[in-house]
Structures are given as structure tokens and as C-alpha cells.
Specification:
It is built from 15 helices and no strands. By secondary structure, the chain is an all-alpha fold. Helix 7 packs across helix 8, helix 8 packs across helix 10 and helix 11 packs parallel to helix 14.
């Protein structure tokens, strides 16, 4: 019997449901294991999650704090999600963020006194170019030299952080920054304001736009289709004549460009100069967000907001429950392990099998 149109609709729904149900189940499993971890310390999981809700989502101020933290996470997650479409595991977005921030800060210092209409675009271009070159080099090493991209990107992140520390404490250091070495503060005209009606900087809006643009690129263009083909089978893509090398370098460079843009917003909207605070772990949290979102740019938006809420609550949890500030990082670790283990579950449940619904 020929499957009806409704049967194909149910099959597509089942396939999409699997990509939603399993990550949510993994997230809940990570929460459950973390709850046991708290109980072993004599702490109440209910109190912990209540404090997280209050600090991250309970009030308008909490939402603004959460959304401000989500802005760089959106862009950092794209640095992982875009190369993942080619089967690459790039985890060095932190390096592109810090160097992008240094590039933006240095450009702002060089253009001191110039019109903001000129200086801000130059700062953006500097941050994007540095991020693209840094992570694009990882793709080039992978394609042309066969260097594992996971190891290369991680090592380059450490190099980037060391380079940033050297620059802000040495050649680019402002002599007036005594306790916390940094570049010279940006001209007030170069500082980004907030979104009208919200106490949230413009990085959030650009992060959401970047996620939507990345989804269009991946799902609605021939380049995105070619990337998915190459990610499924590189050899088959090469036989079909697809430019695998250009795809690998291009998608890694684009991911790095987004991470570099996150560095620009951290300098121009948050810190006002490039300093050690750029290495705040956003690049590493972006890895968890990308995997939890199954590398779907649109799904990155709610997941980034959720994780940002957890990070925004760390201070309140520390004060109220007498727990270390790193407790939220422990939670992220449990969730990440659950997400990795859940990868083995895809295709194992018959209810999510498209063939079951086509022949139903």
C-alpha cells in the first residue's frame, strides 16, 4: 500500500520529535544526577533550583541579567554548531572570543577621536577577521594536514588566552590600569548602548540575528546542503565534486567570525576595554549549548537563554546555600556528560522511526 501524505507528515514529525525528546531527557537526567550530588553534601536540590529560577528568570531584572549573559553564548555556540554540520568537533571558540576582543579594543584605541560611524565598523571587522582567521586555521589544518580539529582548536584556545594576557599586560597595556591590566578604555562614543526598553546590550539582538542567518545558510542554501552531504560522507561528497576543502575552511572561519564578534560585544558593550575578563568561559559553555541544541541554530536561542540563567544564578546560590561559585559548572558538567551519552540512543526507539509511521 502506498503511504499517504499524512503518513509522510507523521514520519517527519517523528523524526523531529526524536531530536527534541532525547536532548530534553538527557537534560533532565543531568539535573537528576546533580540533585544526588547536592544531597550527598546535605543540600536541598529543591532550594537550589528555586534559587536558580529566582536569580535567572524570576524578575524583570533577572531576565535582563540572563539575556545579557546569553548574548555571547549565542555566538559562541555557533562557532561549534556550524563546523559540526561537516562532522567537525571544534571546541576552541574561547580563543576566538578573547582575540576578537583584543582586536576590537586595539582598533578602538588606534581610532581614538575618530567618528563612531567609522570606528565601530572597523572594530567589528577587526574582531570578525581575527576570529575567522583563528578558527579557520583549524579547518585548514584539518583538511590540508589531517590534524585533528578538536585537539588543534583546544590547544589554539590556550595559545590565544596566553597571547591575550601577554598583549594586555605588555605592549597594549594602559599605564593607568594598575590592579587589572587592560588596554586603554574606549572612547565613550565607541561604547554600545542598550536595546530600547531593556537593560540588555545590542549583542543579544545580533546574536539572535546570527542564529537565524546561520539556520538559513544551513537549511535553505546550496552551501548548507553541500555541507550536510560532506558531513555525512566526505568521500561521497568528493566523488560528487563538492568543494570539501572550501566548505571545511569556510564553515570553520564563519564560526570563528561569530566568536570574534562576541569578543567585540564584550569589549564595546560590557568591559569597555580588552582585559583578562574576556576569558570568562563563554566559549566552553557554547560547546554544551551547541550539543544540547543538536547543532540547530534556531534551537541554540532557547538553550543559550536557559544556560545563561543558570550562570546568572551562581552568585545567589553561593550566598544562600554556602556552595562554591563553581557549583553551576558542576551542573553543566553533568548535563554535558548526559548529552554525550544520549548520542547512543538515536535510532533505538521504534516510536521515532519514520518507517513505522509511513507504513502505519
Amino acid at each position: 500500500m502506498t503511504p499517504t501524505r499524512s503518513a509522510f507528515g507523521w514520519a517527519a514529525l517523528a523524526r523531529r520529535a526524536e531530536a527534541v525528546v532525547i536532548p530534553i531527557a538527557a537534560l533532565l537526567a543531568g539535573f537528576a544526577v546533580f540533585s544526588l550530588f547536592l544531597m550527598l553534601q546535605g543540600k536541598s536540590p529543591a532550594e537550589f533550583f528555586a534559587l536558580v529560577y529566582r536569580a535567572g528568570f524570576g524578575t524583570a531584572f533577572s531576565w535582563e541579567n540572563t539575556l545579557s549573559r546569553a548574548a555571547p553564548l549565542l555566538l559562541a555556540a555557533l562557532c561549534v554548531a556550524l563546523p559540526a554540520r561537516l562532522g567537525l568537533v571544534v571546541i576552541g571558540g574561547e580563543g576566538a572570543i578573547v582575540l576578537g576582543g583584543v582586536g576590537a579594543g586595539f582598533a578602538g584605541v588606534l581610532l581614538l577621536g575618530a567618528p563612531a560611524a567609522l570606528a565601530l565598523p572597523v572594530m567589528v571587522v577587526a574582531a570578525i577577521a581575527i576570529g575567522a582567521l583563528w578558527i579557520g586555521a583549524v579547518g585548514a589544518l584539518r583538511h590540508y594536514r589531517g590534524v585533528n580539529e578538536t585537539i588543534a582548536s583546544l590547544l589554539m584556545a590556550y595559545i590565544a588566552i596566553a597571547l591575550m594576557n601577554h598583549l594586555v599586560e605588555g605592549p597594549l597595556r594602559d599605564p593607568a590600569s594598575l590592579n587589572k591590566p587592560s588596554t586603554a578604555p574606549l572612547d565613550e562614543a565607541f561604547r554600545l548602548g542598550t536595546i530600547p526598553g531593556w537593560d540588555v546590550h545590542w549583542g543579544l539582538a545580533f546574536g539572535v540575528i546570527a542564529c537565524v542567518a546561520a539556520w538559513v545558510l544551513i537549511d535553505k542554501t546550496t552551501w548548507g546542503f553541500a555541507a550536510r552531504i560532506a558531513g555525512g560522507n566526505v568521500r561521497a561528497a568528493q566523488v560528487q565534486g563538492l568543494p570539501v576543502g572550501k566548505l571545511i575552511v569556510g564553515f570553520t572561519a564563519l564560526g570563528g567570525a561569530f566568536a570574534g564578534l562576541a569578543g567585540f560585544f564584550e569589549v564595546a558593550a560590557v568591559h569597555g576595554s580588552a582585559n583578562a575578563s574576556l576569558a570568562s568561559g563563554y566559549g566552553y559553555t557554547g560547546i554544551l549549548i551547541a550539543f544540547l541544541a543538536r547543532h540547530n541554530p534556531l534551537a541554540i536561542i532557547p538553550v543559550a537563554i536557559l544556560l545563561a540563567g543558570f550562570e546568572a544564578s551562581s552568585g545567589l546560590v553561593q550566598r544562600r546555600m554556602d556552595l562554591p561559585d563553581a557549583t553551576v559548572l558542576v551542573l553543566q558538567g553533568f548535563v554535558f556528560m548526559a548529552i554525550l551519552m544520549s548520542e547512543t540512543l538515536y535510532g533505538r526507539f521504534k516510536i521515532f522511526a519514520p518507517e513505522r509511521w509511513r507504513t502505519a
